[in-house]
Amino acid sequence: MDVPTFEKMVTEILEELPEEFATKIENVEFIVDPQPSTEIQKSMKVDSGTLLLGLYQGVPLPHRPKLDYSGVLPDRITIYQKNVEAVARTEAKLREILRRTILHEIAHYFGISDRRLRELGVY
To answer: How far is CA 24 from the centre of its chain?
Structure first.
């Protein structure tokens, strides 16, 4: 899939977020990259056989100071297009995996850990 089409799909998924969540997401940049760099893979302790689909980088909402959290660079949610495409066989499956990946990374923004997501049966 070409990058503009993939990015459009990301935008559509973000527009479908329930309003009560979407309105709480502030100062977050959503980025599409082809795949994670070697440095990212190492920093995440992801071996070469594992496909990293997305990555949240920033300070989760519950960990931010209550006062004076201004002038800070935006948090980043990066989606790795080639990795998402590698695990999807159809466009419908790609959209499903992309949606789950976006929601997973947004959960980190809200302070939900991978461990808690597993406990909730999200992934």
So the answer is: 16
Q: For residue range 87-117, what is the model confidence (pLDDT) as tens digits? A: 998 999 999 999 999 999 999 999 998 888 8
Letter string b/e over residues 69-103, b meaning 16 or more CB atoms within 10 A of that residue's CB:
eeeeeebebbbbbebbbeebeeeeebeebbbbbbb
Rounded to the nearest integer, the mean pLDDT of the chain is: 90
Q: Is residue 67 assigned to a domain?
A: no
What letter would DSSP give residue 26?
Answer: -
Mean pLDDT of all residues in 18-38:
92
Question: Domain residues for 19?
Answer: 3-59+72-119
